[in-house]
User: Which sequence fits this backbone?
């Protein structure tokens, strides 16, 4: 039961961060959305909103990467997997009226210059995505440096496209970002074949 | 004098938005940073923080695009201009300890689902960049659809790289985004030559 309350608080906070950001989310909103008593936040997160925020960022980052793994495990063609990941993110945006984008992107920008523990949590998530994504691209034959460059470009395109798509309430930017990610992946794979051959 | 106060308020607000975001910036901080009396905000911006926010977003967007124009006017090689824009943005980040990134990116994510007038202001800025940037790429021989796709990818890479670079306090993401933007521009220019030839 205690565990369930903790999970409900984490889920509700993640949802509120996506829509209102870190600064715009209050503890009162969190306990209301989680149907939890006010004191339960401090019971489970003695460090208050900052500790809760860091846990939500790390947990959301892990969950989001699992989605990446699922899509790449299910689709043998890496170009189709790249395209599928971007277009799937776009579809989720559309059906949520452009609210449900990256769970940590907004927080990352908000806290970068103002909250060092939270900045470090967002940096840890991005670096985890980059290291694990690079390992997957290395599995396709890319050199380590090329694999790391490609996943960084992938994440930058995705985060930038989330921003443009949410602002415009249009999928155009996500579709163009998908095309760029596919083109960059195709070029990197071709380069690795040329180098090996 | 009144005009000077208005300008000082706009400048101070833009600076605060870059570091603290829209939600994290209060009117008290704004008047203190602008050395302006509290009432002057409502004198110049009767709509309060929301009106001020929208004006700052539109004004910062125009100023930032002027920087793009300056760099592209000064550098005849478009690939060098693209690289120069990204690396210049990175250098500004570095010397400001990763605080001075896009003036509207953080606000865009914060308000996308919560403040419709401000969302529309951020969407207007992005669309203005896209239309004017596409016109410049059309001037290099790209078809309208290819030019629009390229500038959207350019802005997405830049905004995403700002996010990753600020979180990590490292220029790596900006350097990899520069390489991606150069590669996409080179491919688009080559495509336009092949089509014309």
Assistant:
């Amino acid at each position: 039961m205690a565990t369930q309350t903790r999970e409900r608080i984490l889920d509700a906070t993640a949802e509120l961060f996506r829509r209102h950001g870190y600064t715009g989310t209050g503890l009162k909103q969190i306990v209301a959305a989680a149907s939890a008593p006010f004191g339960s936040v401090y019971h489970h997160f003695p460090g208050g909103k900052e500790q809760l925020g860091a846990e939500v960022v790390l947990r959301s980052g892990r969950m989001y990467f699992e989605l990446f793994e699922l899509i790449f495990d299910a689709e043998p063609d890496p170009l189709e997997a790249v395209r599928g990941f971007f277009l799937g993110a776009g579809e989720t945006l559309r059906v949520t009226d452009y609210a449900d984008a990256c769970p940590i992107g907004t927080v990352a920008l908000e806290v970068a210059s103002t909250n060092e523990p939270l900045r470090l949590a967002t940096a840890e998530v991005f670096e985890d995505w980059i290291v694990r994504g690079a390992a997957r691209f290395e599995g396709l034959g890319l050199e380590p440096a090329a694999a790391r460059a490609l996943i960084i470009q992938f994440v930058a395109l995705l985060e930038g496209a989330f921003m443009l798509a949410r602002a415009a309430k249009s999928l155009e930017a996500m579709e163009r970002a998908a095309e760029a990610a596919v083109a960059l992946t195709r070029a990197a794979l071709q380069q690795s074949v040329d180098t090996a051959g």
About this structure: The longest helix of chain A spans residues 48-74. The radius of gyration of chain A is 18 Å. Residues 5 and 40 of chain A are 8 Å apart (CA to CA).
